[in-house]
């Protein structure tokens, strides 16, 4: 009988540059085949359980400073395309997968995952036992790692991973926020009808995903995106009908200037609608005097159940965060509106009697289920009310 030859032994495979090495800060080593950009990526290694949406995940600036391991087994089969880009800013540092699809088949595809990663400078590694890796991260927690296509020096990579700055305390927003303001006017891909612009919102860009802007446009809202350092007085002078606080990378507690600015924003007007998404939600809570903490391995996936505490309905949500809000640190005046049913952490809250709220998950669902579209509908209704005054 012929011995089975694993795909990893086929050195002629054009999908790969050659061998690749993934070394965790605790010394665990995974060997695979490298694709995408050549080089070495250092970052916090996290796993994401979404079944689809690899392009949106890798191009989400919330992943800046992180290497993402996808638990879905076959990756790359629908290629990549410009419409599904979540940002052109720095995002994931590296991508770890089990199997890189030998076939790219989709009518929207303009580039293979390999070429697209190479163009973005993202180092990829395939043929990794992602199940063993994920179990390790679940047990030990997310940790720093080095991923390389250029060296076989395990100890040097381990030392680099161990010496890299940890996610706790890291400000990564300055690297991904827009340098200049711009206005977004494109609806979702495939949107049937786009309502006329009925109101205008300003979005603080902490690493914004385009699908947030598309979903707002679908609701008749035109959004002006501004740098994270924009003074509150400048935002208010533009007389927006609402303010969106975007998602983004790093530790929210490290953003002291932003927190101080948001405190000023919340205090400035009782009537201005404010909606925070993920990092924006965390920053809102910090501005209200609350605290955040680091989760062991975070929530990264497309099937996390969240309960709306007002009507007890459950939404399956898209999530991507490593930090969470400590509900006990928030005083009176804020009410828990959404609860994560996986671990009962805070998934959303609202200021009593005010149009100010935030959610820890991703209602823009890129990738993910659209269960939470109604959050954009609710914010848009408040914004339109404000515009009508
Ligand atoms: N998606 C996000 O906005 C992530 C928020 C934050 N960086 C965290 O990891 O918790």
Fold and architecture overview:
L-glutamine binds at residues 62, 248, 250, 279, 282, 320, 322-323. Pathway: Amino-acid biosynthesis; L-arginine biosynthesis; carbamoyl phosphate from bicarbonate: step 1/1; Pyrimidine metabolism; UMP biosynthesis via de novo pathway; (S)-dihydroorotate from bicarbonate: step 1/3. It catalyses: L-glutamine + H2O = L-glutamate + NH4(+); hydrogencarbonate + L-glutamine + 2 ATP + H2O = carbamoyl phosphate + L-glutamate + 2 ADP + phosphate + 2 H(+). The structure is a single chain. This protein has 389 residues and is of the alpha/beta class. The protein folds into 2 domains: 7-163, 3-Layer(bba) Sandwich (Glucose Oxidase, domain 1), CATH 3.50.30.20; 173-388, Class I glutamine amidotransferase (GATase) domain (Rossmann fold, 3-Layer(aba) Sandwich). It has 9 helices and 19 strands. The strands form 3 sheets. It has a 10-stranded mixed beta sheet, with helices on both faces. It has a 7-stranded mixed barrel with strand order 1-2-8-6-4-3-9. Strands 5-7 form a two-stranded parallel sheet. Helix 7 (256-268) packs across helix 8. Residues 1-10 have low confidence and may be disordered. Residues 62, 247-250, 278-279, 320-323 line the site of glutamine.
């Amino acid at each position: 009988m012929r011995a089975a030859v694993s795909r990893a032994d086929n050195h002629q495979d054009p999908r790969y540059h050659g061998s690749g090495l993934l070394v965790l800060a605790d010394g665990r080593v995974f060997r695979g085949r490298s694709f995408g950009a050549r080089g070495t990526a250092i970052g916090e290694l996290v796993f994401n359980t979404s079944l689809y949406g690899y392009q949106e995940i890798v191009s989400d600036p919330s992943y800046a400073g992180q290497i993402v391991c996808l638990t879905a087994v076959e990756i790359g089969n629908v290629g990549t395309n410009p419409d599904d880009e979540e940002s052109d800013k720095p995002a994931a540092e590296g991508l770890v997968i089990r199997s890189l699809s030998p076939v790219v088949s989709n009518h929207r595809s303009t580039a293979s995952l390999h070429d697209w990663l190479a163009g973005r400078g993202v180092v990829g590694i395939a043929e990794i036992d992602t199940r063993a890796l994920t179990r390790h991260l679940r047990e030990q927690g997310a940790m720093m790692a080095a991923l390389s296509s250029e060296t076989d020096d395990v100890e040097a990579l381990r030392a680099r991973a161990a010496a890299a700055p940890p996610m706790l305390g890291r400000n990564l927003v300055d690297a991904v926020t827009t340098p200049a303001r711009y206005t977004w006017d494109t609806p979702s891909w495939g949107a049937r009808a786009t309502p006329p612009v009925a109101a205008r919102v300003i979005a603080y860009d902490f690493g914004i995903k385009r699908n947030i802007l598309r979903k707002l446009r679908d609701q008749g809202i035109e959004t002006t995106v501004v740098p994270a350092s924009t003074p509150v007085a400048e935002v208010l002078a533009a007389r927006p009908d609402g303010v969106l606080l975007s998602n983004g990378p790093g530790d929210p507690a490290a953003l002291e200037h932003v927190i101080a600015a948001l405190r000023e924003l919340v205090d400035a007007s009782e009537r201005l609608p404010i909606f925070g998404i993920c990092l924006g939600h965390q920053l809102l809570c910090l501005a209200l005097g609350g605290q955040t903490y680091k989760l062991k391995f975070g929530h990264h996936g497309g099937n996390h159940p969240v309960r709306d505490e007002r009507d007890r309905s459950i939404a399956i949500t898209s999530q991507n965060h490593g930090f969470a809000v400590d509900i006990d640190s928030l005083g009176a005046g804020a009410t828990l509106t959404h609860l994560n049913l996986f671990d009962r952490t805070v998934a959303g809250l609202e200021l009593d009697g005010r149009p100010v709220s935030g959610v820890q998950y991703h209602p823009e669902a890129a990738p993910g289920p659209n269960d939470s579209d109604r959050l954009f509908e609710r914010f848009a209704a408040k914004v339109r009310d404000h515009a009508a005054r």
